[in-house]
């Protein structure tokens, strides 16, 4: 777009823009043999210096660079993944969880309703959840339900590592038709479950509804998580349980995501978050 002004009022030789001189930088287009090419760069807030990142890395979390060109947030070299295999005389369970996934659900526990709930965990938490299990379900679902939860908790513990830079806390209220369930959690390293669901039926399909509390208690024990589950409304057992898993997924997603203001530090005044 061109701007034309009358010549008597404006002449190029009379123009000066002192206020722009300190704000304009000219970048040379010719290659500089003293500066090797790089594949990924992080540009500092200092306009006079460009900091290359070499070698290139897979970065799944944002890097913040201060005025001194020093990284103030950890550069993640890959996704946070936990992988666990648990074998007993009663069950054989394999679990793999990617906290930085896209919501891939691949569960085959031998308990159809539990698989349906694990799908909610993946979909609403945006975790990649892979669960394969065989067990003595000819007796009942108790052992498989428990061992799947124990393995998932251990995988979470492994994927979280030292928990640097995460939000740590998460809470979410999930409505599902007539149901409202609230979940609040703390990735504190201290296992505790507060559970207050009122399930009106003993079974959903073939799944014993008593196993819901046992699932979360087992997961809490191995992950080192403080978890509170509260039901505010609802009369349908399927809806109550499903809303619980959805709220848990969203709260866990919130807690495991990075807090960019924390600059990679551990979210604790003690300076450590560990499984007690």
If strands are numbered along the chain, what order do they take across the biggest sheet? Answer: 3-4-6-5
Task: Look at the structure and give the mean pLDDT.
Answer: 80
Principal-axes shape call: globular
Question: Largest beta sheet, briefly?
Answer: 4 strands, mixed
Measured on Cα atoms, how large is the radius of gyration? 26 Å
End-to-end distance: 66 Å
Assign a percent range to the helix content.
25-40%
Assess the beta-strand content as a share of residues: 15-25%
What is the structural class?
alpha+beta
Briefly summarize what is shown.
This protein has 276 residues and is an alpha+beta fold. The protein has helices spanning 18-21, 112-125, 142-160, 210-223, 237-256; strands spanning 40-43, 50-53, 81-87, 91-98, 105-108, 128-135, 169-176, 179-186, 192-196, 203-204, 207-208, 226-233.
